[in-house]
Amino acid sequence: MTAPGPPVPPPPGPLSARLARYAGLAGGVLLTVAGYLGGALPDAPLGVTPASIWRTPDGPATLICWLVGTALLVGAWWSLRGGAPSTRWACVTAALWALPLLIAPPLGSRDVYSYACQGWTYAHGVDPYAVGVAAAGCPWLDTVAPIWRDTPTPYGPVFVLLAALAVTLGGGLTGTVVLLRVIAVAGLLLAAICLPGLARAAGVPTRRAVWLALAAPLVGVHLVAGAHNDAVMLGLLLCGLLLVIRRPGLPVALLLAGALLGLAVTVKASALVVVPFAALAAVHGRHTVRALLRDGGWLAGGLFAALLVTSTLSGLGFGWVGGLTHSGDSEQWTSPPTAVGFVVDYAGALVGRDPQAVPVLRAVALLLLAGVLVVLWWRAWRALRGPNDARRAARAAQGEGAGVEGAWVEGALAEGAGGEGAGVEGARVEGAWVEGARVEGARGEGARGEGARGEGAGGEGAGGEARAEGAWVEVGRPRVVLHGAALALVATVVLSPVFHPWYATWPLALLALTAVRTTWFVLPVAVVAFLALPDGTNLARFTKAPGAVAMTALLLAVVLILLRTAHRPGPTRRS
Asked: Are strands 437-439 and 432-434 parallel, antiparallel or unpaired?
């Protein structure tokens, strides 16, 4: 039995789907052309501006191909945001769009050259967490963006090992970049394998989840062509979540799931915010503190084992933890805390002051992030404990021998507990909205107690309870956990000191699995696809003041909307 998920529009017609498929393919081809004309090539000039790019011989063609190609990719993805015709169609189309980008030069950033130099540093016996790639003597230093030349690597030991492997097997810069792209694509393939299973567990059509997560323009441009290590992190993260959701309570499975999550953290530490929610999914049966400590302990054991083993085998220890402090060296208004800091500094300059507000606002945002993560986890915990309270209320009602009509427990309306005579025909539970996901699978067959009718004082009415619980476990629990993890990643992206376009891929995959409405997160992803030029030039650098003001205004509007929603009166409880 599977409870229905959030409402999803019907599949698009054949003509609309065909137009979207080939429009996106044309966009991918144009972006590849833009990459060869003016992408992040090893010998491309650094420190350029849109105006200086336009003045080069291939500049107009580069910018036009980039703009039209991005618009085609974004438009095609947006047009099917309600879901592709089928899961297979979504996978084939995403792969088709990625084909031209597989043979393109690096696009959207020069980070892949930083990866190469960090791998070279480790492969030549130098600690990449102690020195930058310039001091290490990397022969490809000229390809690395200046801001990252003197910065120790902010990535975990697993990715450093993968980068060193690429350097060793690649034999040169081109071979290393190709292998780093292969590693990124392998991470995406792992994510593609796990997404359908997670979508089914959450009660969401796989055709929508796969389309939103894999066909997004940011995935093709930044994870495939840009070879960002976020692809590896996402693949490991989704694989760990799928295992823990499918095999809760099994020690061996939880140890393996914890190890996968630990490997994700040792690629990119931002994966750590998902782990507390994975611990909730690890619980088998009722969510009690004892069960959480028991099953979550197995998961934590696997995670810490992965951290310890990889840090020890790499010979780098836990020096990578200190490297995380350097990830905020860049200052751009695309990070909301940084944007607010810019606005405060601008306001101070008007009165002859220099508040230096950016580091202060960034620190405040990190403290706020910690609080938000705790609240999100607590809400998920309370939602998962809701069925425990519902069972206790139902049992108390049955013990009194009276029908219960309209018992509200944690937002779930239980109706129809009255039966013929003293029998219980079955409790129907519908309309429980948990963390934005509706759970309504406990009606009809699922809630009817087998043999409960006419069985004296309740008969086997517990069968209805068990079936209702089964519907909740099958769909409600995974959706609560995945949605909580998605919101945790959203908060991490929004409140972090730095934001780059590919960071939006972190929460995108989990939101595609759980969100009832899609526009609120699909629209920002579509917008940020236009932020980075083919050579990695970020347009945020040239719009600092207006961008900071616009971001601050947007942030205030979102806060006001959230506050207004929080104070909206809920449903009236029946007496």
From this structure: antiparallel
